[in-house]
Write a structure and sequence with these properties.
elongated
Length: 185
Amino acid sequence: MPSSLHKLDPITLLRELESRSRHHAMGLPMQVEIQNTWSGVGFRIGDIRLVVEMDSVSEILSIPGFTRIPGAHPWVKGLANVRGTLIPIIDLRILLNAGMVKQEKRTRMLVIKEDGAVAGFMVDEVYGMRHFIATDRQDDLPNAEDFIQPYILGSYIQNDMPWGLFDMNKISSSTAFHQVAARTV
């Protein structure tokens, strides 16, 4: 401390220190308006980026080994044992009549649990959690292909990229989904 401060009475010394502290202090951070966000799990089917509600997905897995099921539709790839739980593996692209998921390094399975039932949906790629400003939601997905349109609840645009809000409940409750057998014996 400079010698001039030693000669000051304690109150004056405290005021001087406060003045110096305020002079060198950084300002408060700028006030930012907080916006409500919506979060989901982002994934891709072909060239279409989609997002599904977080509550719909119980886990994301690499494609496990599975056993094919004779007589099942082509979109039923097989049955996998994941930590003691049997999970039917569904190729979402075939189910939607949009081709076949090419099993590559990025291919993943979204595990969906609903009403006690569980199913794994193969998708081309999973992007993880995506956050969107809730008020940016649109009613449709611009330029959506016909095969995906019935399952779209809306969309969000992020960095000029549309993300379709995919209705996984509509898929899992559809009649086609519950008719696993391709033919009766």
